């Protein structure tokens, strides 16, 4: 077993396994142990806002990954859905993350990032 399993077992220790609220209690203890607090959430959002697309990743894969990471934001302690990036923010991030050639082709095609949906990018 790895460190994460050990930490999870410690978080679960002493909880009533027949109580449905015990899982949430264990998860909260584990998140606190991993320091997944408000500051960590802000750090993650800052990272997402400044990410660059890896060369081997397609734009579609980049969008999907960014959307998935965004879905995980409410999992941080004291975070809510309101802390997630909006679709407009994601579009801006995607545009900034793309290489210069992609941006040039996008602009030359007559498209505007704010007029496109995430699916059409």
Could you characterize what this model shows?
The chain is built from six helices and no strands. It has 121 residues and is mostly helical.
List keywords for this structure.
mainly alpha, 121 residues
Describe this structure in a few short sentences:
With 121 residues, the chain is mainly α.
Please write out the topology.
Blueprint lengths: L2 H10 L8 H13 L4 H12 L9 H13 L15 H11 L2 H9 L13
The low-confidence runs, each spanning 5 or more residues with pLDDT under 50, are none
Separate helix tally: 6
Structural class: mainly alpha
**Radius of gyration from CA coordinates:** 19 Å
Oligomerization category of the chains in this entry: single chain
What does the average pLDDT come to?
Answer: 88
The outline comes out as: elongated
How far apart the termini lie comes to: 42 Å
DSSP E strands, number: 0
Order of helices and strands: HHHHHH
Q: What's the main sheet like?
A: none
Beta-strand proportion: under 5%
Portion of residues within helices? 55-70%
